[in-house]
Design brief:
Length: about 140
C-alpha cells in the first residue's frame, strides 16, 4: 500500500471520529471516569476542583441502581466537578484507606479532603445539594 494513501486514510479516520464525537457527544462521553489505587492521588487528591468519587462493585445491585443518578449529576456539573468511580474489588487499598465498609459509597473531595460522604442509595436531590455546597 502506498504510504501517502495510508497517511490520508489515517487523517480521514481521525477527522471522522472528531466529527462523530461533535455530532453525537453521548457516544464519546465519559462523564464518570474510572480511577484506581495507582491513579487516585492524581485523579482525586491533587485535583484542582471538587471531585465526587463513587465506590462500587460490579456485583452490587444498589450500586447499579445509583449509577444513572451519578451519570446525570456528572453531566449537570461537567467542567465544574470531576466524577470518578472506584471498583472496591479492584482497588482495595484506596477503599480501605478511606474506610469504605459498605457500598455504594459516595465521597466528595475538595482540596484533597473528604467534605461529604454517604453510604447506600441516595436521592439525586441529596447529591445535588452536596455538590452545590462543594462549589462554595
Amino acid at each position: 500500500m502506498n504510504l501517502k494513501l495510508l497517511q490520508k486514510a489515517i487523517v480521514f479516520s481521525a477527522a471522522a471520529f472528531c466529527l462523530i464525537a461533535m455530532l453525537f457527544p453521548a457516544l464519546a462521553d465519559e462523564s464518570v471516569k474510572a480511577s484506581s489505587d495507582a491513579a487516585f492521588a492524581k485523579d482525586v487528591v491533587k485535583a484542582d476542583k471538587p471531585v465526587l468519587v463513587d465506590f462500587y462493585a460490579d456485583w452490587c445491585q444498589p450500586c447499579r441502581k445509583l449509577s444513572p443518578t451519578i451519570e446525570a449529576m456528572a453531566k449537570k456539573y461537567a467542567g465544574k466537578i470531576d466524577f470518578y468511580k472506584i471498583n472496591v474489588d479492584q482497588s482495595p487499598k484506596i477503599s480501605e484507606e478511606y474506610k469504605v465498609n459498605a457500598i455504594p459509597a459516595i465521597k466528595i473531595f475538595k482540596g484533597g479532603k473528604v467534605i461529604s460522604e454517604s453510604v447506600g442509595t441516595v436521592s439525586e436531590a441529596s447529591i445535588d445539594a452536596r455538590l452545590e455546597n462543594a462549589l462554595k
